[in-house]
Amino acid sequence: MRVYGYLRASTDEQDANRAKNTLIDFAENLDIRVSAWFVENDSGAKLNRPELFRLLEFAEEGDVILLEQVDRITRLSEKDWQKLKNVIIGNKLKIVSMDLPTSHTFAKSTDEFQTRILDAINSMMLDILAATARKDYVDRRRRQSEGVKKAKSLGKYKGRPEDIKLQDKIKSLLADDKSYNHIQNMLGCSRHTISKVNKRIKEERLESESN
Q1: Domain 3-135, CATH among 3.40.250.10, 3.40.50.1390, 3.90.420.10, 2.60.120.260
Q2: C-alpha to C-alpha distance for 22 and 24, rounded to whole angstroms
């Protein structure tokens, strides 16, 4: 059995590695060692997350996905959560999350009967936490939308500021012909952000050539 840590933050401005040391301590308390880390900045409400699915392709039967919280792996709709859960179950992987005490025994259990009982309990608790994470996401988005509408009506909405320093770093790495994967791993930003900067570079180049 190998253990893979999965760390996620929703935006490029957030530090996806924030919980890494906490998870390392948690793993040590369970007397397990993390074999590799998979880190990305992407929304938990999206099913298609490159690093998550790289982990799922890399892991083998009986391996563990280690999480700080279940919402790191899912803020998905019920339909998408069932798709992801089916992949995890189909590959016979185990989820161990700090906020899911019923999962902690998975890290050590070798007894088949105990594992099957825990699996049934854990599956139910995972569904509850996944539903809670989704509700929290939907409620937060609704409050944000209401806040934006109110700010617009008062003429106070300025939109989200761009991270100029991050964009400059991406431009520099693209100019050095670095791959998207290299830039993503180095800066911890999303592929969407890299693509957006790359598109802007191309537009600026075309505009310069036309002038």
Answers
A1: 3.40.50.1390
A2: 5
